[in-house]
């Protein structure tokens, strides 16, 4: 998965937006102002094809154990709730990476107030 595919998929989530909240190189994907994915464009240019994604703490530990070269505690993030996932040149399938993005998005949506969750349910087949 390349950066364009990653960006397109993140933005395909209902009401997802992109933003540069920290600097001109750190691209964040948000829903209702809450971040569900984060990546460094500078790192992509240097060959570090990774993204930070929110994850259920138990699943985070499971994925880190199962994929130790591709999934590890979130770089500069809360290590309990975020994973850094290698997406380019990774052994992880694009389908699994999309699953991780969906999981991150859904976790963030589930924590939103009920009034803000309206219209954010995934379409069948996602």
From TrEMBL:
Identification of the protein by name:
MmcQ-like protein
Entry-linked PANTHER family: CYTOPLASMIC PROTEIN, CYTOPLASMIC PROTEIN-RELATED
Q: Which InterPro entries match?
A: YjbR, YjbR-like_sf, YjbR/MT2646/Rv2570-like
């Amino acid at each position: 998965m390349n950066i364009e595919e990653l960006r397109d998929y993140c933005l395909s989530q209902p009401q997802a937006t992109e933003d540069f909240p920290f600097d001109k190189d750190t691209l964040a994907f948000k829903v209702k102002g809450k971040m569900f994915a984060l990546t460094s464009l500078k790192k992509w240019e240097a060959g570090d094809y990774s993204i930070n994604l929110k994850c259920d703490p138990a699943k985070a530990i499971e994925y880190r154990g199962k994929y130790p070269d591709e999934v590890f505690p979130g770089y500069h993030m809360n290590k309990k709730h975020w994973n850094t996932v290698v997406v380019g040149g990774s052994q992880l399938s694009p389908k699994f990476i999309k699953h991780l993005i969906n999981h991150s998005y859904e976790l963030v949506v589930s924590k939103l107030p009920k009034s803000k969750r309206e219209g954010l349910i995934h379409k069948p087949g996602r």
